[in-house]
Amino acid sequence: MANFRLHYFSEVLQMNVGVNVIIPENTWGHSLADRPEGYRYPVLWLQSGGGFDYTDWQRYTALELYAAEAGVAVVCSGTYCSGYMDTKHGDFKYFTQLSVETPAVVRHLFPLSEKPEENYIAGFSMGGYGTLKWMLRDPEKFAAFGLFSGIKNVPEMIPEKEDREDPLYMFAAAFGDAKNTLGTEDDVVYMLKKQLAAGKKMPKGYMATGVEDTHYEDNVAFMDKYESMGLKFERVIDHGAHNWEYCNRHVKKFLDWLDIQETFQRDAE
């Protein structure tokens, strides 16, 4: 495996940011230089939870191993406590940096596929919201999405007015009041209805939540809402809490479920 920790200057944020990029080898002990000329890897864009950064998936899971087994490249970004927003206060464009600028940078530096059928997106906790938000803005760019104990529609959870006593007050600078986000591109239920009305086809989906998860009821409610719109997906309800052990288990299951074929890794002897 080649595991890169990349730091680059973000034009939209006007500061340095970090990205982790995993490039799989074809088989254990073989050089990446053996890769066929012109080959571009299928890629998983993997989002972390709120308050985490671009290193956490590598530090708390066996992601490198799973990527090698699947023959897929992985790009991990971190938006800290920005809530996957271009923030309402301060106008820090974290979501633009994540979903527009970073893909352009890493595709310039690494052989990553731009084909929709070879691009996948997934996330844990607040990264589930970021996954849905990005996927619903650009549904034609992804073949599949995955949510592992993922928070779904944050605009429905934040208070009508900023409240220091509210558990989500740490995200107040990002979201502001509920009125700032409901009925906008930051509202994933609104965007889902909008894109379906426009005739857009949704990528295939995988949603997993554990019954011990603190967000279990909200997760199941979103699954039901998604299904009520006539959309099919892989629904997984099992045992597990809102933690990295659950993520480690389900990122592996998600990659197996994708059943990515005809990769350089799988074609190797």
UniProtKB/TrEMBL annotation:
Gene3D superfamilies in UniProt: alpha/beta hydrolase (3.40.50.1820)
Organism: Mediterraneibacter hominis
InterPro entries: AB_hydrolase_fold, Esterase-like, Mycobacterial_A85_antigen
Any one Gene Ontology molecular-function term assigned to this protein's record: acyltransferase activity, transferring groups other than amino-acyl groups
Record's protein name: Esterase family protein
Cross-referenced PANTHER family: DIACYLGLYCEROL ACYLTRANSFERASE_MYCOLYLTRANSFERASE AG85A, ENTEROCHELIN ESTERASE-RELATED
Ranges that cross the membrane: none
Source domain of life: Bacteria
